[in-house]
Structure formats: C-alpha cells, structure tokens
C-alpha cells in the first residue's frame, strides 16, 4: 500500500533553476526539441538531456520521437496549473536589460498558460464574459484595494444559457472528455483567467481568426491589426 504523497520528490525536480527554465519554455503547451530547450536553459545538449530524463521520470514531461529528433512537452494541463501556481508565489526576476524588459511587458500583456490565454488579455476576456452575463460564479476580478487572490478560494464558474449560445455563435469548439471550465490565478494580474476546455477553445478560435499569433520562441502572444478591432468589438479589450 502506498504511503503519503512525496511532495519533496516534485520539489527536488523544481529546485533546479535550469529544469525550471525548461518547464517554463514548455508552458505554452507546444512540443519543443531538446536543442531548443538546451538553449533556453543555457546548458549543453548533454546536460539538457540529463535534466529532461529526470523530468520524464518525475512525470512532468513526455517525449515524442519524429525520425531522429525528439520533442518534449509538458505531461498535461495539470503540470501547467502547477507551474502557474508556483509562478504566482515566486518573486519576480530583476530586469537587467532592455531586452528583458521588453519581453516582460509582452508576457504581461498577453501570453499563453499551457493551452489558454493569460496576462492582461486573458483576464480581460474572462472579465468580459462575467460582466456580460455569459459566465457566472464570481466577479472574475478584484478591486486593487482587495487582498491578493488566494488559491483556496474555489469559485464554481458556469456558462449561462446565453454563454452556451455565445460559444456556438463565436465558433468555439470544446474538446470532448475534458472539464469545460477551469480557472487560474493570473500571476501578473492577480485575477482569474479562463482555462479548461473553454479557455483552450477560445485561444484556438482567436488563432484561427488570426486575431492573435503565438510567438515562435516563447509564451508571448501578439495581437494582429484585425485582432485589435475584433477583440475590442467582441470582448471590450
């Protein structure tokens, strides 16, 4: 019979800065080659291979083989939620260059959190869904004077009948067999953004419309000219 959960085993994997860089690079849900992850972590290919092996053994990443190349991705949304929770608790890194400052601003404006939108854009979309009566269960945001949002404050968000109609009309496709609504506490905005099948479906639809484009090398999301108009019209952001 197994004993209590060995949290320290996961903590040991996350206690190495290079492995954390690898995991954050994978936090947009895409599969990346080992060479790219080595560059993200700032280590040699052999060292990256060692770290990736430990992350695989710990159940945090999976590997896909395409010909002679191996691509790694997070083991699932649950790992993405773990990373987002840890990011919310972690102190910010000091910005020491213009390049780092530019990247930090881009990530705050709009980024992916595994397979859904986060940052100002993700929070703004969820806020609109709540304010428009399409999503119920909480206010979706907080007053700046309120204390920080906590992870123990479970909110039972649900789509209203109008919300279900909006999902169909907007062309959001929900993955079968997956919980429709989840939410994350956004680490930069200290408010909720939408995850689950609905969050993933909305991001996929926005990419399909070419309103947003995922950056080729990190979690940042770029809003196109068409997206500026479409997002303002549809979500008021």
Summarize the topology.
Blueprint: H1 7-14, H2 17-25, E1 32-33, H3 34-41, H4 45-57, E2 61-66, E3 69-74, H5 77-89, H6 98-109, E4 111-113, E5 116-118, H7 119-131, E6 135-136, E7 158-159, H8 161-170, E8 182-185, E9 192-195, H9 196-208, E10 212-214, E11 221-223, H10 225-235
Antiparallel strand pairs: 1-3, 2-3, 4-5, 6-7, 8-9, 10-11
Helix pairs in contact: 2-3, 3-4
Q: State the end-to-end CA separation.
A: 52 Å
Total beta-strand segments? 11
Report the C-alpha radius of gyration, rounded. Answer: 18 Å
Q: How big a fraction of the residues is strand?
A: 15-25%
Total helical segments: 10
Describe what this molecule looks like in 3D.
InterPro entries: ArsR-like_HTH (IPR011991), HTH_ArsR_DNA-bd_dom (IPR001845), HTH_Metal-responsive_Reg (IPR052543), WH-like_DNA-bd_sf (IPR036388), WH_DNA-bd_sf (IPR036390). This is Transcriptional regulator. Residues 1-94 form the HTH arsR-type domain. GO terms for molecular function: cadmium ion sensor activity; DNA binding; DNA-binding transcription factor activity; lead ion binding. It contains ten helices and eleven strands. The protein is an alpha+beta fold and 237 residues long. It folds into two domains: 7-75, Winged helix-like DNA-binding domain superfamily/Winged helix DNA-binding domain (Arc Repressor Mutant, subunit A), CATH 1.10.10.10; 82-235, no CATH class. A hairpin with a 6-residue loop joins strand 10 (212-214) and strand 11 (221-223). The model is unreliable at 139-144 and 147-153 (pLDDT under 50).
